[in-house]
Amino acid sequence: MSFVNSSSMNNTNLLLQAGRWRWWELLLWAAALASPWLLGSHALIINEIAIVALFALSLDVILGYTGIVSLGHAAFFGMGAYTAALFAKHIYPDPLAGLAVAMVVATLLGALCSITIQRGTDLTRLMVTLGVGLILMELANKLDWLTGGADGLQGVVMGPLLGRFEFDLYGRTAATYSIVVLFVMFVLARRLVNSPFGGTLKAIRDNRLRAMAIGIPVTSRIAVAYTVAAGAAGMAGALLAQTTGFASLDVFEFHRSADLMLLLVIGGVGWLYGGVMGAIVFKLMQDFISSITPQYWTFWIGLFLVVLVLVGRERLVRPWTWFGARSKHKTGGAA
Questions:
Q1: Under CATH, what is the fold of the domain 2-331?
Q2: How many CB atoms lie within 10 A of CB 44?
């Protein structure tokens, strides 16, 4: 009995240490919040990075911490985007209200889709998740009276944020809004993965059969993780629609989900900052290379990914991996 209590206390201490903020994290988020105002001319790309980082964060919850591979995560992103755009255009233009509605709709869709991923192999899940995204894209295309079809949903005008802050053309308000939402969701995801519930997700990821043998309800845990990730992805889509005033079929396309995989390859899975760092590197590279060679930027990004795999992420992104290594060493591997 004393051995069990001691082990339980050790696990609790590890979880508490994992949830403790470190100095470089506070510095990172302070710089992120100040960046739209200090780098005003780059506020639009900062806004894109924050949205993509939230999208990648949502996928990492199910891929990095639960071991569920998905190629259809764009389904929830697109659902959030269209929900927020339709809500603002036809019901109420308040950004926070639209964000909440989009999150609820995407979460409900995630709960429904979680039923389809609980059986079968990883290949089966890949095909099912991809199929959901394709179905929703085709529905958005056919329901042109509601979604605008191939032309997209235009004429979306957002009201001021908190009734005071207008969305300016330079994107400062939009970027700050997206970063704040990203930070809030990051904190919640951090609490989730460093909780006892998050510990069961890691157990499922490492060995599902063993997790079942020790009494972990694998099916319900996967369903909850998938549903939570869907809600976060829907919020990312809502931010895109709200800050651009537009929603198109592009939000459902396969490349959205594929780009997420690239982001997590760059930043690393199973570490919440991996998606954030991957988003920063990927979007900055995309912006810089496409400004030099608009036709062949994908070639150079592909070459970078090949080099990254051959050389190793640790050698190319040594400062961030040093921070990550120290965090994992202190917290027993949690992000």
A1: ABC transporter involved in vitamin B12 uptake, BtuC (1.10.3470)
A2: 19
